[in-house]
Amino acid sequence: MANPEPNILVIDGNPDRAAVVERGLVESGWVRVSTIGPSVNLLARIQALAPDVIIIDLENPDRDTLEQMFQVSRVVQRPIAMFVDQSDSQMIHAAIEAGVSAYVVDGLRQDRIKPIVETAITRFNAFDRLRRERDEAQSKLQDRKQVEKAKGLLMKHRGLSEEDAYNLMRRTAMKQNRKLSDIAQSVITAFEMEL
Question: CB within 8 A of 124, min separation 6: which ones?
Fold first, then answer.
């Protein structure tokens, strides 16, 4: 996260517990803190507030409440620390799968809030970097596959050598100021339309 002073959102239906979390955050130097309770339109409210970090504090969550919170964590790509009083291995697994960065059972104490939030931010940033690197690698692999397929089509239907097919696409990309993969996709589309 680039922002040195993150905007933190606390989601808690219990005002007393929310006050403990908020006090812990403010005493840690984080003053941009908002608090809301769980609600039907929770996702819309979160998106409107656009927090950098989300802290979810649930006393004794039922499955429906947990699923709503997990849905939030899947959709909102932010560091999320979740505090619950009770849990089981299924809930922990579901929380991690949903993207919760820190899942703390029976651990809500004011003095623990700062290190837990810092851990959630660090863990989120590490996984986010890995996700971006994976997506970039997958994109490059897909681009390479398209170029290879387009070369094969040019070789087969135009009688070009592999080098000539590649050079033709590369020159076209340079002339049109486009990416080689875009030209490859155009070649593939053109040949598919002829069939």
Answer: 78, 79, 80, 101
Pair of tokens at residue 126: 């590490």
Question: pTM of whole model > 0.85?
Answer: no
- For residue 190, which of 159, 160, 146 has the smallest C-alpha distance? 146
- State the amino acid at position 89 in one-letter form: S
What is the spatial order of strands in the sheet that 8-12 belongs to? 33-36, 8-12, 53-58, 80-84, 102-105
Question: Cα–chain-centroid distance for residue 146?
Answer: 27
Query: For the segment 121-177, what is each residue's pLDDT rounded down to a tens digit?
Result: 999 999 889 989 999 999 999 999 999 999 999 999 999 999 999 999 999 999 999
Beta strands in the chain (DSSP E): 8-12, 33-36, 53-58, 80-84, 102-105
- The size of the chain, in residues, is 195
